[in-house]
Amino acid sequence: MPDGDTQVPELAFPLDIPCLKRGAMEGTKPFVAQAEHQAKLGFPGELVPDWKEKALAKMQELAEKNRAFQVYLDICVKCGACTDKCHYFLGTGDPKNMPVARQDLLRSVYRRYFTFAGKHFPWLVGARDLTEEVLNEWYSYYHQCSECRRCSVFCPYGIDTAEITMAAREILDSVGVGQKYSNEIIGKVKDIGNNLGLNPKALRATLEGLEEDIEDDTGVSVRIPLDEKGADILLVTPSADFFAEPHIEGLIGYAKVFHEAGVSWTLSSYASEAANFGLFIGSYENMREISLRIRKAAQDLRVKRIIFGECGHAWRVAYSFLNTLAGPWDFLDQSYPVPQHILEFTWDEIQKGTLTLDPSRNDHIRLTYHDSCNVARASGMGDYPGGQFEIPRNVIRAVCNNFFDMEPDTIREATLCCGGGGGLLTDDLLDLRIKGSAPRMKALQDVTEEHGVTHMAAICAICKTQFGKVMPKYGYEMDAILSVHQLVSNAIILTGQEDADEDEADDA
Amino acid sequence: MSYQVNGHTIEHDEEGYITTLSDWSKELADEIAKTENIDMTSEHWEVVNFLREYYDEYQIAPAVRVLIKAIKKSMGPDKGNNKYMYELFPYGPAKQACKIAGLPKPTGCV
Fold this sequence. Notes:
Shape of chain A: globular
Pfam families (chain B): DsrC
Number of strands of chain A: 7
Order of helices and strands of chain A: HHHHHHHHHHHHEHEHEHEHEHHHHEHEHH
CATH superfamily of chain B: DsrC protein, C-terminal domain
GO cellular component, one term (chain B): cytoplasm
Largest sheet of chain A: 4 strands, parallel
Distance between the termini of chain B: 25 Å
Number of helices of chain A: 23
Shape of chain B: globular
CATH class of chain B: Mainly Alpha
Strand content of chain A: under 5%
Largest sheet of chain B: 2 strands, antiparallel
Family (chain B): Belongs to the DsrC/TusE family.
Organism (chain B): Ruegeria sp. PrR005
Helix content of chain B: 40-55%
Strand order of the largest sheet of chain A: 2-1-3-4
Radius of gyration of chain A: 23 Å
InterPro entries (chain B): DsrC-like_C, DsrC-like_dom_sf, DsrC-like_N, DsrC/TusE
Largest interface: A-B, 39 and 21 residues
Oligomer: heterodimer
Structural class of chain B: mainly alpha
């Protein structure tokens, strides 16, 4: 497996179609899930003997159950508008990573078995038999798509490529070929409550340590409550916020905002995970099971509101599907959005004037902002269209004096993926992740040359981890990626905070 | 997929994490470190020992921040920082040091 150290691609900027490298990523694939991982999700432990029949039956079932999927299979005219929109194609040059070509790996099989022309004249319409070779090709290339949906923005028919990838992964799971990374993690959520496998005792100790850190830094006692019945707000945040850098700095930011806003809030050890990898593998049942943990926690703790922390696809599941998956939420206070994003909450408080902010405390940072794909293209925020682009930027501008956006065709709705989303944030795909991040890194380097940008902020746990890993390959420090609420945390001056000015001098 | 230590065969997964945690020994840690191109110094051992103690208590590896705080206490601020941890364990204190300490790999968006 290439270690990625020498795999940084040379790309032009503005982004251009790369030279084709046929087969460049052939054979790249993540570790396959073991039987024990599969069993917890209700999937066969290994390739079943009648896999071909099962796979085709699953494809048929999905096409019948999900009209959109069938339409996406039927209507592509191969116009090519999507070809150069995929970061993995741009970074690898492998033509099978053109979204249209990657989709056709599955579509060609669909045509063979489910369309008149494909059944009778397969050679005429590029229809293929389903063979073990094809199955392996699916496993490889459908794990070279991060389901970021940038290609869909440019598709004149609005084909949602991520749905094809999810369906392919669902078919693979149903015949016993699952991905270790995603499926092992889903199993941990079911067993323990979060992706990390962080048990309540360890979680409590971690949070108590953070409370000590905040008090050491500021002289103010700020609580990070866990499992407190009767709190008004349940915060559901990715477990990376309890473990990794810079995520944990973001969690400190949420706690400071809640503290200054004077609201009562709590985390839950039972629903200690916002992420929902059920989405990545296209499994409605698993997505639902994970979501129901949030419902149970909200009811057990008798909260009135639910707020989600900085996690991209969690916000998609929450904003777009939570009501279907785990509703109705009629037991919550309906005068607040159900659910609400932490950035909406913070922006409201900034507008109300409850937070004392000193943006000059971020003056050592020249910042740009990476729109995370699932927030940008698959959800909204606030009560107006485009709120998911404006609200994070509003908060950033309130806490940071030096903010510069990247090129318009690389942000907002057209944002480039970090290269690690959709279940690909695993070391066994590091080479792909480095190559796939190249377009975003080019846009970042451009704004560094133009405006001297030193740091980039994001509101997704996956983006943050991915950038921490790949940015050093592109000439940045690993801590050049920040949580948005880390910037809030830096700028906020808590009521009664000691030596705010001295701290500022220390930071500079 | 296995390590060989003192004539014993110790199974590991695709990424080199041992599958039976009780198989761990100091000799094994040296062996794993060798495959990671790490020469174990007393600083490396300080980290590995802390990870194992923490795991004993909490059945999970500590957050990087918790590790750094502990190292800062025992070895001073020069060594209790993220940069130094990455000098010791270039592939990350969480994952690479856990592997050498015989702990499971931290999973999720980390």
